Amino acid sequence: MASKRPLTSFRLLSFDIYGTLIDWERGIIEGLKPLVARLPDSHALKSDPIALGSALNRLERHYQVENPKQTYDLILKASYEALAKELQAFPSPADGEDPLSLLDKEGTAFGAKIGDWPAFPDTVEAMRKLKKRYKLVPVTNVDRSSFQRTLHGPLGGVHEGLKDGETFFDAVYTAQDIGSYKPDPRNFDYLLSHIKSEFGVEKEEILHVAQSLFHDHEPAKKFGMHSAWIARGEGGETGMGGKVAEYLEGENPKVAFGWRFSSLGELAEAIEKEAEKGA
């Protein structure tokens, strides 16, 4: 799927954030610890973080389709509680408190942690390099408030050196703005139409940068977008983006990304090398 087109020929990079810039899986696994601690040691999900992330993501997708206008923190809350019920991993009653009431509190705390999920180690430096060359526009499956906490928390380093009043991202399109969650086509319609109206940038001038084959690369192919796969995880396999083989195999694969990198840092480095050759 390698592309011969120069990476430096694009004017704008659109991004997935959680899974690509932010370590979604690490944040999820950390947040699920209270629930996992209640599972028996023999349970398969106790020692398999990818399967655990996949189990949560399956429920998350269900609630995103069922309640597309609900904010992401509430989607996560519902997913956490549904997973606990599915696994029969309820909190132990304390001082006569109802286990479902305790679960409600745990679910709320889980959803409130989005802004604490860590950035990948390469993210901030890579994004600062990319800022020098492109317009940068995330299209993310979270709500505005959660994204702002991420932007000024784990991604705070991207603001170093910016002038007063200057923002790092040129625009931010959230699921809350759009009223649906990726991979819904409405999210990519919104992305393309707004980039054209706000920046005068056509689809052919956009490179979509993302980890998730399910949320991003499959719809990117359907829309005829150029895309680069940031294959986080072992062989690109995570609990979020779907089984890699299901998307890459066959005569007509579900995805058609033109570039593959194991990190955002690798992408930024490839672009810098390309630019140096062309200088």
Automatic annotation (TrEMBL):
Keywords of this entry: Hydrolase
Coiled-coil blocks: none
SUPFAM superfamilies the UniProt entry points to: HAD-like
Organism superkingdom: Eukaryota
Pfam families registered for this protein in UniProt: Hydrolase
InterPro entries with a match to the protein in the record: HAD-like_sf, HAD-SF_hydro_IA, HAD_sf, S-2-haloacid_dehalogenase
GO MF assignments: phosphatase activity
Record-given protein name: Haloacid dehalogenase, type II
Source species: Helicocarpus griseus UAMH5409
